[in-house]
Amino acid sequence: MSDYILQFLISGITVGSIYALVGLGFTIIYNASDVVNFAQGEFVMIGAMSAVSFSIAGIPLIIAIIMAMMVTVLVGFALNQFAIKPAKGASVVTTIIITIGASIFLRGAALLIWGKDFYSLPAFSGEQPIHIAGATILPQNLWVMGISVLLVSAVLWFFKYTLLGKAILACSCNHTAAQMVGINVGKMMLLSYGLSAMLGALAGVLIVPITFSSYDAGIMLGLKGFSAAILGGIGNPIGAIVGGLLLGILESLGAGFISSGYKDAIAFAIILFVLFVRPSGLLGHEHQERV
Amino acid sequence: MRSKIATLLSITSLCCSIMISSQVYAGDTIKIGSFLAVTGGASFLGDPELKTLQMYIDKLNKEGGVLGKKIELVHYDTGGNPKKAVNFIKRLVKKDRVDVIIGGSTSGTTLAVAPLVKKFKIPMISLAGSIKIVEPTQKWLFKVPHTDRMAAAKVFADMQKRGFTKVALISGSGGFDKSGRTQSLALASKYNIQIVADESYGNKDTDMTAQLTKIRASDAQAILNFGFGKAPAIVTKNIKQLGIKLPIYQSHGVASKKYIELSGDAANGVRLPAAAIVVANELADNDIQKKVTMAYKTQYEAKYDQVSSFGAHAYDALMITLKAIKQAKGVDKKALRTAIERTQNYVGAGGIFNMSADDHMGLKEDSFKLLEIVDGRWQIVN
Amino acid sequence: MSSSLLKISNLSSSYGPVNVLNKLSIEVHAGELVALVGANGAGKTTLLRCISGVQKITSGHIYFSDKEISHLSTDQIVSCGISQSPEGRQVFAPLSVADNLLLGAYSLRKKTLKTKEQQTHAIENIYQLFPILKEKQAHSAGTLSGGQQQMLAIGRALMAQPSLLLLDEPSMGLAPLLVKEIFSIIKKLNEQGTTVLLVEQNAKMALSIANRAYVIETGQVTLSGNADELLGNKAIQRAYLGHSL
Asked: Is A135 within 8 Å of chain C by CB?
């Protein structure tokens, strides 16, 4: 029984790390502009698919990964320049709808480029499972978890300790005031889309050996990453990680102990309950503002 | 002003020429209607199906057509949507006045139009899998693909031969997967097999180790996965990750090179039922289906990407239709229907078809080959 | 006092079809403390927004140190040396007091406030001006009281070390005692050499510390002169200062 639970937890943490990485991408753009970027899942897909393409073309894995990240960052820039920026002054809801449209467009473009097939990359360091007290884990899972920890620390550090990070936060708090202290809000937006695209691409590259990728892989990942971010408290990088891991573990325990058919329903029911009790998410700030 | 008149004139003349030409064609062509899921979630079915129909109809027209008449394909894309399928059937029959219909790609679209097919009294050959299309038999409705039940039967027969009595079932959330699960549960006892675990997963899930951990704890002697797309490859890899040594069976849903590619080493030893077309290269030279499958494969792959069993169903449907048209010496709907029903010994890409008034599919279980993946390649078992 | 630091000529601006500024012209000389007074909706805030480049102008010119700035973006204008404490304070509520001040110096991050020491030093200067902010430096700005937020907004604007400081309604919503304190600080800042353009509804208070003032009505300057003269002007007294003066 105990090795049961351990295996469920390992599965949950692996899947949860993936959700967390995607959720982290939502956090950055949300922090810059209060916009939930529903094309975040597409960043993950584009990162994964271009890494596979470069790798198939014979480029060494590490360079292929860097190139895939650059491609995705360019897509992020383009999304900001051609879809978000022209709608400057539009409401947050309008902008969110624009990102949904952009995600459909990107999916269509991916369909044209890569077709409907699934693609995979070889695991970074083999596929020999590692045994831990009756449970098993793949080396790639460790990669996912390890890099997730690194990335979340980097993002936290960026927002907490760098002037640039604080400037991005300032843009979302108050656009006008941010301009008035001399922050080029347009540049910050561009930067945040580029950053979250890079994060998405890295997530895609990490998980493609485990989950595979296809032109429509971004939908599910985007949805789960969004749920993770909301559960943990959107805008808070630690929240995204906590939310992602929790969602992964809930799904895994749900599938293991209750019913595999209802695992999504179980997870979403719990999310709804949490949001009902704490509308700002587990680690979200209550709005504290005195005027 | 002048340009406006010119535009009007050209539009009028264009309309006239279309009307004239369509009138001329009406008598001289045989019209085959089709409604396939070329876009949307089931596009992996509709896309090769439409390509196959177009390719062979073009080829045939170049060679002079059938009974001296050209063949015209009238196609509508359903996107897999049954409501659209219903509208398209009405349009095909009433407006386009087609002689026979091939489609749809999915069981949902086929079953949705079945009452209309009966009402309009038009022969239709479906390319969908569900056994409900031909059981009970409906007068005007036929189908060519193998059923899920045949796949389950093929797998269970092999399990019985190997002496397995306890089997763990794991299946996806799609229509194909669910139907396969239902058929497997219903059929198992016939082969003295007990389903000791019945797990499921979402088709877009990325990890199935929780479900497989439960299977590991059961006393199953083999695992059967009814699934589609990338999920079965993840199941296969997860089984290896968990160190489960049980033999793995998959359904015909994964009978493509992609499955082997995605699963990597974990795919070795996996057994599955598949249509002959998947292993056309590996078929023995004296195999009765060798010629037809190689011909279709060569034709298709010369123009498009890798061949699939789905395109092959469209090929079989088209060939059965053409044979029937020749036999009926025309496209009188009644005569055509009877001719299709009398299809005998047609060696197709999917198997050998022997239809009758009680059997509107005409395939036997042996039309599936049982394959094993050995060193990343298909091998036909016995 | 010969050349003007800020010169605005024939400036017009509108929100959609509504003209808010109508060929308005003012001047601010280096070292002055100039007040803009006028009723609610006269266009005072819009004028400041135009100077900062947050509000688009429809016609006219804005010169700063003889250089036209009306086509520049807000961050470029801040770099020129104009910073603003906006109406309603608009502090970055979730960020700490110290971070708010640090961001105030964003335009100097590659110039005079590059190093941590320089930044800390500049922030210390603000703390000397507003000691309460030092006490609250780790608190998030949203938790401060209205008066403290106002101090933070002014401090943040000062962090950019501006040659022209724009203050929009610094007394709004504050208790009389606090208003007095804020205004004495503004006067002190001006005496230390910062040129100030002050927008105020509290005309009496504004005129009492200003050198000169403009009275704005419906987007135009209707009266201008030395603050003392205006303070004695009967029409002004009736319109903005109440009878009891």
From this structure: no
Q: Which comes out higher in pLDDT, residue B155 or C42?
A: B155
Domain that holds residue A245: 6-277
Is A285 a domain residue? no
Mutate to test the interface with B, among A212, A227, A249 (most CBs of B within 10 A): A212
Q: Report the distance separating Cα A244 and Cα A29, nearest Å.
A: 17
Residue A283 lies in a domain: no
Q: Identify which of A180, A288, A289 has the shortest CB distance to residue C74.
A: A180
Alpha-helical regions (H) of chain C? 44-52, 74-80, 97-104, 116-129, 131-135, 146-159, 176-191, 203-209, 227-232, 234-236
Domain with CATH 3.40.50.2300 in chain B: 29-147+293-364, 148-281+367-380
Give the β-pairing of C212-217 and C220-226.
Answer: antiparallel
Any chains having at least 3 CB pairs less than 8 A from chain C are A
Q: Residue B252's closest CA among B301, B320, B179, B202?
A: B179
From the CA of B48, how many Å to the nearest CA of chain A?
12
Whether A284 is in a domain gets the answer: no
Distance, CA of B148 to CA of B252 (rounded, Å) = 8
Chain B residues with beta carbon closer than 8 angstroms to that of A137: 241
Q: Which fold has domain B148-281+367-380?
A: Rossmann fold (3.40.50)
The ipTM value here is 0.88
* Subunit partners of chain A (3 or more CB pairs within 8 A): B, C
CATH number at residue A235: 1.10.3470
* Mean pLDDT split into 10-residue runs, chain A, 291 residues: 81 89 90 89 96 94 96 96 88 91 95 88 88 86 90 90 93 90 93 94 92 89 90 87 92 84 80 84 60 36
Total domains in the fold of chain A: 1
In a domain, A149, yes or no: yes
The span from the CA of B271 to the CA of B382, in Å, is 12
Task: Give mean pLDDT, residues C65-71.
Answer: 92
- Residues A87, A89: Cα–Cα separation, whole Å: 6
Kindly determine whether residue C103 and residue A166, on different chains, have CB atoms separated by under 8 Å. yes
Amino acid (1-letter code) at residue A57: A
Which residue of C lies nearest to A176 if distances are taken between CA atoms? C54
CATH architecture, domain defined by B29-147+293-364? 3-Layer(aba) Sandwich (3.40)
Domains of chain C: 1-81+163-245 (3.40.50.300), 93-161 (no CATH)
> Nearest CA to CA, how far is B268 from chain A (Å)?
15
Cross-strand partners of C64: C6, C67
Q: CB A211 to CB B206 under 8 A?
A: yes
Q: Does B211 contact A256 at a Cβ distance shorter than 8 Å?
A: yes
Beta carbons of B207 and A15 less than 8 Å apart: yes
Average pLDDT score over residue span C2-13: 87
Q: How far is Cα A175 from Cα B285, in angstroms, rounded to an integer?
A: 74
Q: Please count the residue pairs, one from chain A and one from chain C, whose beta carbons lie less than 8 angstroms apart.
A: 88
> Nearest chain C Cα to A188, which residue?
C75
pLDDT tens column, C77-114: 999 999 999 998 899 998 999 999 999 999 998 888 88
What predicted TM-score, i.e. pTM, was given to this entire model? 0.81
